Amino acid sequence: MSSPRRQNTKKYGNAADQTTLSLPPAPVAPADPVGHALAGGSVVAGSGAMFDAIAERYDLINRLMTFGIDQRWRRLAVQCLNLPPHAKVLDLATGTGDLALMAARLAPTCTVVGIDPSLGMLAVGLGKVKAAGLAKRVDLRHGDACQLDIPDQFVDGVTMGFGIRNVANRAKALREIARVLRPGARVCILEATEPTGLLGAGARFHLRVVVPRLGALLARAPQYRYLQQSVAAFPQPHRFGEIMESSGLKVLEIRKLLLGVAHLFVATPSGTAPGEAGS
Predict the structure, then answer these.
(1) For the whole model, what pTM was predicted?
(2) Helix H or strand E segment including 185
(3) Are strands 249-257 and 262-269 parallel, antiparallel or unpaired?
């Protein structure tokens, strides 16, 4: 009997080497900075106190981060609410009030309550509300998205623009949204996300390099580096959709905006207790 033919290991290498060489290193997900102290200080990342320090420049940095078309996206978010006449709208992480003001302008009979943890951002927003002549219909309040002082099934629509990534307990905030929405009403969440693929390379460079440097130049503050880091650490859109589904919401649409620089998430109460979906 002839002996088994030996494999030429010089040409192919042994099996152990092939296994090692064929496995690329696993990608490491960036750490989520939300809830941790900012570099060089004790201010918590994503907190109201953090945004107090950049309130005067926040509108400008939003324009830089989104190539100046964030207002178009806010308009889209309000339109996707499909609001009835005389609707009650809740705008979470209202910040300087851009999305609350957009809702009031596009739905002339609605009333809007905007809630934000940053007193500095709210102060800027109140000035904008008064300047727009909408103080009777837009009410900005200090508060927490995870603890809403609003009755069950009370509002006809909820918006949240570029704020959910700053919430440490996102599932809890989403459960609160599901609780206060009337059956069939919608929530529209806009969030900045990391673009993917070859076409998104320029956008990634803009977000990772240009925005933090411009922000630091304008305000000399570490908050702008946090904004880029929080976008990088935010869950992939499909994963965030899953978190919404497990928090009492039924996702109707996830829409990519500008090569993935942002996404719009549209959902409605599922009528199922959080955690029971799919059971």
Answers:
(1) 0.79
(2) strand 181-192
(3) antiparallel
Task: Report DSSP state, residue 37.
Answer: B
How far apart, in whole angstroms, are the C-alpha atoms of residue 172 and residue 188? 17
Per-position DSSP letters for 95-128, written without gaps between them: TTSHHHHHHHHHSTT-EEEEEES-HHHHHHHHHH
Over residues 200-221, the pLDDT tens digits come to 666 666 666 666 666 666 655 5
CB 180 within 8 A of CB 149: no
Closest CA to 255 of 44, 76, 98, 52: 76
Under 8 Å between Cβ of 241 and 50: no
183 pLDDT tier (thresholds 50, 70, 90): very high
Rounded Cα gap, residues 231 and 100, in angstroms? 23
For residue 161, the model assigns a pLDDT of 95
| Percentage of residues in the chain having pLDDT higher than 90 | 54
CB 100 within 8 A of CB 121: no
Q: Which of 9, 27, 30, 29 is nearest to 18 (CA)?
A: 9
The DSSP 8-state label assigned to residue 30 in this structure reads P
- Exposed, middle or buried: residue 202 (CB in 10 Å: 0-12, 13-18, 19+)? exposed
Residue 65 C-alpha from the chain's centroid: 13
Q: How is residue 84 written in tokens?
A: 């009835």
Helix 98-106, helix 119-131: angle, nearest 10: 30
Q: Please, what is the angle between helix 223-233 and helix 211-219, to 10°?
A: 150
